[in-house]
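Support reply, case 0932

Customer input (verbatim):
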Amino acid sequence: AVLGAPDADLLVLVAGEDVVIVDATAHGVAITRLESLDTTRSTRSAGTDTLVNVTDPMLRGAARNARTVFRTLAAAEAVGVSWAVLDMAVEYAKVREQFG
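Our regenerated output:
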């Protein structure tokens, strides 16, 4: 899944064990809408139906590290969101008036 793909100029794609950076508007790049529970984000699937252009920047053997970085960033975002939700719940509990 690619977050914000419709607004992206470049896409970072995993191709086997390599990471490739491609132009989002290049011929052969397919971006497909994905259904998501999070309606605040545009989530898409991105890929190519052709071989990667040899002029595209490529990081050989970097797929494993890229996946680790992506997962770490997603986890950090989830922690940040959970802290924000906890802060909002605490603030609401402080001002809430219970009837009865």
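We compared this against your earlier run and they match. Two observations from our side: The radius of gyration is 19 Å. The chain has a mean pLDDT of 86. Please reopen the case if you see a mismatch on your end.
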